């Protein structure tokens, strides 16, 4: 299955199961900035242990590989687990919504947009920029993440909420990186 088909199929599954989600990562930055290839589809999900059985049934072996133990631990610890399509190796990364104030802010701000003919909840451009910069800081200033953030900023500069960007950039420690890509 092509990555776009996997993305849409995952969204339909999450919606059918009543699991709140948000597309994030490189797919979000590609929609809002400059498209680039990526090996995975990233979602933030508000998933509980009681939701997990249905989700695992929706991605059955041998078409998909998912470690039930890793998924359970990720739900308990509010971390991440993935689902891999066996035939292609395409990967869905499911990041659990955490108790972090910024995580909740960006999840509440998500917007529904048309992607490949499907209504999909996506991170706002401001939150995509901030998360890309946060990932860059956590990974030792990854130029790919900074470049993604810069492209989203450039394409959306006239419509960005700069007060929100500046406030959260300071709070999550990416103010210097935001200033750098703003220049």
Please name the defining characteristics of this protein.
two-stranded antiparallel sheet; 9 helices; five-stranded mixed sheet; 2 domains; 183 residues; alpha+beta; Beta Polymerase, domain 2
Report on this model:
The chain is an alpha+beta fold. α2 runs parallel beside α7, α6 runs antiparallel to α7 and α6 runs parallel beside α8. Helices cover about 55% and strands about 20% of the residues. The model has no long low-confidence stretch (mean pLDDT about 95). The protein has two domains: about 120 residues, Beta Polymerase, domain 2; about 60 residues, no CATH class.
Content of β-strand: 15-25%
List low-pLDDT spans: none
Total domain units:
2
- What is the chain-wise order of helices and strands? HEHEHEHEEHEEHHHH
Number of strands: 7
Question: If you consult CATH, what is the topology of the largest domain?
Answer: Beta Polymerase, domain 2
Largest sheet: 5 strands, mixed
Q: Helix segment count?
A: 9
Mean pLDDT: 94
Principal-axis shape: globular
Concise summary:
With 183 residues, the chain is of the alpha+beta class. It folds into 2 domains: 1-123, Beta Polymerase, domain 2 (2-Layer Sandwich); 124-183, no CATH class.
């Amino acid at each position: 299955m092509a990555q776009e088909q996997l993305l849409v199929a995952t969204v339909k599954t999450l919606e059918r199961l009543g699991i709140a989600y948000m597309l994030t990562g490189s797919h979000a930055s590609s929609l809002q900035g400059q498209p680039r290839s990526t090996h995975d589809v990233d979602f933030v999900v508000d998933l509980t242990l009681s939701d997990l059985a249905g989700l695992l049934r929706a991605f059955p072996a041998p078409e998909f590989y998912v470690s039930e133990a890793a998924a359970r631990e990720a739900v308990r610890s509010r971390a991440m687990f993935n689902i891999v399509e066996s035939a292609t190796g395409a990967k869905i990364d499911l990041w659990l919504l955490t108790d972090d104030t910024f995580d909740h802010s960006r999840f509440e701000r998500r917007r529904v947009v048309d992607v490949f003919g499907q209504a999909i909840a996506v991170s706002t451009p401001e939150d995509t920029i901030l998360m890309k910069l946060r990932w860059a800081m956590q990974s030792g200033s990854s130029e790919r993440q900074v470049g993604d953030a810069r492209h989203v900023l450039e394409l959306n500069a006239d419509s960005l909420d700069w007060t929100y960007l500046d406030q959260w950039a300071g709070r999550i420690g990416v103010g210097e990186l935001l200033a750098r890509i703003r220049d």
